[in-house]
Structures are given as structure tokens and as C-alpha cells.
TrEMBL record:
<dbReference type="InterPro" id="IPR051209">
    <property type="entry name" value="FAD-bind_Monooxygenase_sf"/>
</dbReference>
<dbReference type="Pfam" id="PF00743">
    <property type="entry name" value="FMO-like"/>
</dbReference>
<keyword id="KW-0560">Oxidoreductase</keyword>
<comment type="similarity">
    <text>Belongs to the FAD-binding monooxygenase family.</text>
</comment>
<dbReference type="GO" id="GO:0050660">
    <property type="term" value="F:flavin adenine dinucleotide binding"/>
</dbReference>
<keyword id="KW-0521">NADP</keyword>
<dbReference type="InterPro" id="IPR020946">
    <property type="entry name" value="Flavin_mOase-like"/>
</dbReference>
<keyword id="KW-0274">FAD</keyword>
<protein>
    <recommendedName>
        <fullName>Baeyer-Villiger monooxygenase</fullName>
    </recommendedName>
</protein>
<dbReference type="GO" id="GO:0004499">
    <property type="term" value="F:N,N-dimethylaniline monooxygenase activity"/>
</dbReference>
<comment type="function">
    <text>Catalyzes a Baeyer-Villiger oxidation reaction, i.e. the insertion of an oxygen atom into a carbon-carbon bond adjacent to a carbonyl, which converts ketones to esters or lactones using NADPH and/or NADH as an electron donor. Thus, can convert bicyclo[3.2.0]hept-2-en-6-one into the oxidative lactone products 2-oxabicyclo[3.3.0]oct-6-en-3-one and 3-oxabicyclo[3.3.0]oct-6-en-2-one. Is also able to catalyze the sulfoxidation of methyl phenyl sulfide (thioanisole).</text>
</comment>
<keyword id="KW-0285">Flavoprotein</keyword>
<dbReference type="InterPro" id="IPR036188">
    <property type="entry name" value="FAD/NAD-bd_sf"/>
</dbReference>
<dbReference type="GO" id="GO:0050661">
    <property type="term" value="F:NADP binding"/>
</dbReference>
<keyword id="KW-0503">Monooxygenase</keyword>
Length: 507
């Protein structure tokens, strides 16, 4: 990478958000951009999460770009390897590789007020960009809790997003910490081959059956021959989820029927009343993400599995100790404890117009205008920003809406002309955030009686969008310039202009 290379747009990350941004830039006629990726390949969370059983809990035909339909999904719920292959395919089909700088982790991004640009330091060199699109995603930096004695554990320790495939779990005594979306896929995948599995569960999840099946060759042939059938399938999947939104956002009591279905799902596999009691949540379904699995409960019912209804609190040598005092001897500890979602590390590396980092600006909670723009950070946008997450549908729908907003943002800069930047007004950010938080008050995520990763340290939900994907698309269709301050580069003095002209002549 050339020293101080200048580009129109720098995209950070090459997961769904980053690749989607790159495709949209090309479709807008913008080719002067780079995608900065810290790893050596594309894929984001679908590259990093390769643990046994890793798969998506959103149907395949909805968990893909509308502009890049895939008629050849092998299953209704695709596995990690198929989703990663899809992202590699998108990269090649849309000729994105020349724009991607691999092994280029962003160390710092600093707004340069004099030149109206972002100065970016990476592990492979420095560059500057007029606009930054941050697409690092909230599920990119693993979170391992601070456990007393963990550093002295003599066995193997790793997070689900950093799976050690060289370590053979066969016959081992394994502790799995956490019962989120990753853990319920890992447990049934490793249970048949480990010697003993001890599951540390702070809070039981609600689990519904995962109605997964192979997509027949006839279906795939039909989708290839008649692309409209793929669109119809996607539309039906989308429509069903749009109709479900009101139960989550306005009428949580209507979810009681779904709870009964989840309890029946549990009862079919868990016959032991004591174990069933451990696994039954005491909060409204939907407050945490509803998990999908038809193999999780059957795995927990096996003789080589122990469920500890308490979190891991201490490690003493090879002994793991739960908060309730339960002990187990283990050879390996696997953390399925999630990610830094409301405290994303990338925020520590973004320095805005007033010299403060994004993390400092967000110390009392994340907030961004329409989930994209933070006040004090001109020409900086984020994909999957604050309050853009979903509890029941595909994040790709939200990403594409934010790409619409990004595209119009760049069009507005072109219309304004010259060296110009847009900075979200604090009043606009506050008004947007107030409206979102007011709508959040009646949702199941706030009223369901649980503590989830949707909430930040102060208990505020800065993660989920409290509406339909249609509403969000409408809200991000266009950039309203009244919500932004237009910043232009200061005009040079006559003396400065003469010096600049002389320097150009000397050059």
C-alpha cells in the first residue's frame, strides 16, 4: 500500500456489510475505493465462525443479497461453509478483489479538518479517504468473561469464533460456557464424541424446532430456469416475518402461544422433570433471540452431558467452578459467550472532529442518525450501526437499506460539489434516538424480563430496530440535508495561495 494513498471511499471490513457496500459503490459508478480487511480472506463473521455445526438461523433465500440471488442453496438453512462460499462468489462475480486490501487491520482513523478527509493507519500502511464506511459488524470481536484462575488453566481454551480445529475433542472432558446461538449448535455437534460435556448455563434460552431440509435438485433447477420463483420464495419468507413484528414490538403478550410451542419442543426430548425445570426460561419468549434447533435438547438428555444452571465463576487448576459451587474436572473450555456488541473495539480507533474517539462519544450509549451517522464524525458512516439489529428476520434486509442511504449520501456530496463533508447534527441524532427509544419501551426486548446482549451497560437497548424492515427502508431511502451540517474546506489566504502555487511550480 502506497504511503498516504488517497481514495474517495474506504470501506472497513469484508463481511456482508463491506462487500455489499463495495458492490453498491461500483453500481453507483464509484471505482476509487478500497476495502480494508484485517484477515486474509473475505467473509467476516462467516469466515471467523467455523465451529462444528455452525449455520444460519435465517432461511437461505432471505439471508442473501437481493441483487445476488443464489438458486443453488443446498439447504433451507445453510451452513457456514455455504454462506462463506456465497460471499466468495459475490466477491468474484462483482469483481471486487482488486479493491480489497487483505491483512490491513485499521489501527486508527482520524478526521483531518484542514483537508476534510480521514487519515487512516493500517497494519499494511497509511492512506486517506474522503469518506469512510465502517462495516466491521457487531459480531466480529469475541467476548470472553473475566474468570478468576482462567489464565492458569492447564488445558485448552478458545472462543467459538476462534475454534481450534487442530485440537481433537474426542474423549475429552469439555466445558461449554454459554447457551446462545453458537452454543446450541456446538453442543449437539460435539456431544457424541466427547467423553463428558458440562454446559454452564446462566440463563436458559427459548428454543424452537429448526425445520431444516435439503433443497431438492428439482427446486434448484426451477430457481435457475425461472429466477422469478426465487424472488417469490424470498418474498414469502420476508412477508411472514414482517407480519410477526407487531407481536415483538407492540403486543408481547401475543407471544404466549409461541412459548407453549417451545415448551412442547422441550418436553418431547427432555423427560427428566428436574432437567426440564433447569431448561425452562422465566422470561417472555423473544426477549432474548429465539433460537432454532431440533438437536439441542436431545443432546442435553444424553448420559454424558451435565447441565449446570449457573455461570462459570472460577477455575482452579483443571477444575471449573460455577457460581452455585458446582465443580467439574475438564480438559478444555469452549466459550460461547458472544461478542463486543455495544462496546465495539473499532469505536476506540475512530477519532472525530473534536479529538474525541467514537467510544468516548458513545460512553453513555451508542446513537447514530438513522443507524448510520454519528455527530462529530463527518463523512463517516457505519453499516449495522446502533438500533439496526433484528430479532426475527434477515440482517441483509437492513444492510441493503443502509446501502441505499450510503449511496444517496455520496450523491448529495457530489451535488454540493467541491471539497465538502456532511456532519450529522447532534439535534438530529438526539431526535432520531429519542424516537427509537420511545418505540422501544413497549417491545418484548425491553419488557420481557430478561437481560440480553441487546442491552448496553446501562440497560438501554442500543442494538435492535423496533419496527419492520419496510419502515427502516423508508426511513433510509434518502438523506435529509437538514439533518446535517455542510462543512466546506476553509479558503486559503492570499499568502497561503501564493505559497501553494510556488510549491506546485517547484514540484
Amino acid at each position: 500500500m502506497a504511503e498516504h494513498e488517497h481514495v474517495r471511499v474506504a470501506v472497513i471490513g469484508s463481511g456482508f456489510g463491506g462487500l455489499g457496500a463495495a458492490v453498491r459503490l461500483r453500481r453507483e459508478g464509484i471505482t476509487d475505493f478500497v476495502v480494508l480487511e484485517r484477515a486474509s480472506s473475505v467473509g467476516g463473521t462467516w469466515r471467523d465462525n467455523s465451529y462444528p455445526g455452525c449455520a444460519c438461523d435465517v432461511p437461505s433465500h432471505l439471508y442473501s443479497f437481493s441483487f445476488a440471488p443464489n438458486p443453488d442453496w443446498p439447504r433451507t438453512f445453510s451452513g457456514q461453509e455455504h454462506i462463506r462460499a456465497y460471499l466468495e462468489h459475490v466477491t468474484d462475480v462483482f469483481r471486487l478483489r482488486p479493491h480489497i486490501r487483505f491483512d490491513s487491520e485499521v489501527k486508527k482513523m482520524t478526521w483531518n479538518a484542514e483537508h476534510l478527509r480521514w487519515d487512516i493507519e493500517t497494519t499494511s500502511g497509511n492512506l486517506c479517504a474522503d469518506v469512510v464506511v465502517s462495516a466491521t459488524g457487531p459480531l466480529s470481536d469475541p467476548k470472553i468473561p473475566d474468570i478468576t484462575g482462567l489464565d492458569s488453566f492447564p488445558g485448552k481454551v478458545f472462543h467459538s469464533a476462534r475454534w481450534d480445529h487442530d485440537y481433537d475433542l474426542t474423549g475429552k472432558r469439555v466445558a461449554v460456557v454459554g447457551t446462545g446461538a453458537s452454543a446450541i449448535q456446538i453442543v449437539p455437534s460435539i456431544q457424541p464424541r466427547v467423553g463428558r460435556l458440562t454446559l454452564f448455563q446462566r440463563t436458559p434460552p427459548w428454543v424452537m424446532p429448526r425445520v431444516d431440509r435439503a433443497i431438492s435438485s428439482l427446486e434448484r433447477s426451477l430457481h435457475r430456469a425461472l429466477p422469478l420463483t426465487t424472488q417469490v420464495r424470498r418474498g414469502l419468507l420476508w412477508g411472514i416475518r414482517e407480519l410477526q413484528v407487531q407481536a415483538f414490538t407492540k403486543h408481547p403478550d401475543e407471544l404466549g402461544f409461541v412459548e407453549q410451542l417451545a415448551k412442547r419442543n422441550m418436553a418431547r426430548a427432555i423427560k427428566d422433570p428436574a432437567l426440564r425445570a433447569k431448561l425452562t426460561p422465566d422470561y417472555r419468549i423473544g426477549c432474548k433471540r429465539i433460537l432454532l434447533s431440533s438437536t439441542y435438547y436431545p443432546a442435553l438428555a444424553q448420559d454424558n452431558v451435565d447441565v449446570v444452571a449457573s455461570g462459570l465463576s472460577e477455575v482452579r487448576g483443571s477444575t471449573v467452578v460455577a457460581a452455585d459451587g458446582t465443580e467439574a474436572e475438564v480438559d478444555a473450555i469452549v466459550f460461547g459467550t458472544g461478542f463486543h456488541v455495544t462496546d465495539m473495539p473499532i469505536a476506540e480507533r475512530v477519532v472525530g472532529a473534536d479529538g474525541r474517539t467514537l467510544a468516548e462519544t458513545w460512553k453513555n450509549g451508542m446513537a447514530a442518525l438513522r443507524g448510520a451517522s454519528a455527530a462529530g464524525f463527518p463523512n463517516w458512516m457505519t453499516i449495522i450501526g446502533p438500533n439496526t439489529g433484528l430479532g426475527n428476520s434477515s440482517m441483509i434486509l437492513m444492510i441493503e437499506s443502509q446501502l441505499n442511504y450510503m449511496a444517496d449520501y455520496l450523491r448529495q456530496l457530489n451535488v454540493l460539489g467541491g471539497k465538502v463533508a456532511l456532519d450529522a447534527r447532534q439535534s438530529a441524532v438526539d431526535a432520531w434516538n429519542h424516537k427509537v427509544q420511545e418505540r422501544m419501551k413497549r417491545t418484548v426486548w425491553n419488557t420481557g424480563g430478561c437481560t440480553s446482549w441487546y442491552l448496553d451497560a446501562s440497560g438501554r437497548n442500543t442494538t435492535i430496530w423496533p419496527g419492520t424492515t419496510t419502515e427502516f427502508r423508508r426511513a433510509t431511502r434518502r438523506v435529509d440535508l437538514a439533518e446535517y451540517e455542510v462543512i466546506r474546506a476553509p479558503r486559503p489566504t492570499a499568502t497561503a495561495a501564493r505559497r501553494q502555487a510556488a510549491a506546485e511550480v517547484d514540484a
